[in-house]
Amino acid sequence: MSHDYVAVQWNHRKKVYDIALWAGIALYIAVFMLVSIVQHPGIEALSPMTLLIRALATLAFFLLSIILCIGPLARLNTKFLPLLYNRRHMGVSMFIVALAHAVLATIWYHSFGVQNPVVAIFSSPGSFDSAADIAFQPFGFFALLILFVMAATSHDYWNANLGAPIWKALHMGVYIAYALLVIHVALGAMQDDSTGLVPAMVGLSVLTVGSLHLAAAVVSRKADKEIAAEEPWINLGSWREIENNSAITASVGNNERVAIFRYEGNKLAAVSNVCKHQNGPLGEGRVIDGCITCPWHGFQYRPEDGRAPAPFEERIATYQLMLEGENVLLNPLALPEGTERPVTEIVDMIAST
């Protein structure tokens, strides 16, 4: 849903994004194979198939690392929001690359024996005597299985039918897949690497992903006003701290987060911080064309009642506010989703600045 109430479809920008993404994928594979051939001329082990399998493997891991960085980057700087808007397209593309790697590797390394190639993945010899002896392929198999579930449910159809909380929890499995892939690479390709590039790539990925998520969590926590939900009305401070058409966030009991928006210069509204689409942080969005607009995918809600504009039917919880001098007071008890509050409860603020 965009700010002019048009549902997000396969638009021109997404087509251009996908063309650029797959052109980049093709270029990466070509450059990887060419550089490998130049660096290791005459080595029979580096057959075109082997090089292609390695190129797909490094590319899938690289894309997954980027995907995991987009979320915290968008929370730290709004300039990265366009990447978040197209993240699912990159995620599905990453899965296709990872699937191609898995299929080719299974055929190339397991299809010439008497066992079923998939069975061979789990029956390959291995031991725990050293890291080099531990079977690494099962870790990649289960990571791919998780990525398949995520790619298969990436469409909004599943988000709508499963519900945002379940859909979001399901897609948090990407972190389990990432951990499995780190183990897969550490026990596999890293053991045969003599250049140090593979350990460097994995280490840089883990450090970058971990640091960005930690930084985003710290910034988000600092932005929250920590308040106790036991109080009937909670003082959030001066309304002057809230920029027009923007919000502050407050955490009230049980980690419930509330977004308090200022709009039209002299009005305040408090709503749930959680977007119904994919649990996006509404408090990091803005009021556009009179509607609170989620920064992730543009879903919108009217500030006076928490309802999406027609023809959409999403609703979020609202909260009561009042002013005591310049101080904004919040009632931490959520009203039912989509509750329309009397105009007098959308607080008119002191005109003087």
What does this protein look like?
The protein starts with 11 loop residues before the first helix and ends in a 23-residue tail after the last strand. It contains eleven helices and eleven strands. The chain has two domains: 12-222, Four Helix Bundle (Hemerythrin (Met), subunit A), CATH 1.20.120; 228-345, Rieske Iron-sulfur Protein. The chain has a five-stranded mixed sheet with strand order 1-3-4-5-9. A three-stranded antiparallel sheet has the order 2-11-10, with no helix packed on it. The protein is 48% helix and 14% strand. The chain is of the alpha+beta class and 353 residues long. Residues 1-8, 343-347 and 349-353 have low confidence and may be disordered.
Topology, element by element:
Layout: H1 12-39, H2 48-76, H3 81-85, H4 87-110, H5 117-123, H6 137-152, H7 156-162, H8 164-171, H9 174-187, H10 189-192, H11 197-223, E1 224-227, E2 234-238, E3 246-252, E4 256-263, E5 267-272, E6 286-288, E7 291-293, E8 300-301, E9 318-319, E10 321-324, E11 327-330
Parallel strand pairs: 1-3
Antiparallel strand pairs: 2-11, 3-4, 4-5, 5-9, 6-7, 7-8, 10-11
Helix pairs in contact: 1-2, 2-4, 2-9, 2-11, 4-5, 4-6, 6-9, 7-8
Compact overview of the structure:
By secondary structure, this protein is α+β, with helices and mostly antiparallel strands. Helices cover 48% and strands 14% of the residues. A hairpin with a 2-residue loop joins strand 6 (286-288) and strand 7.
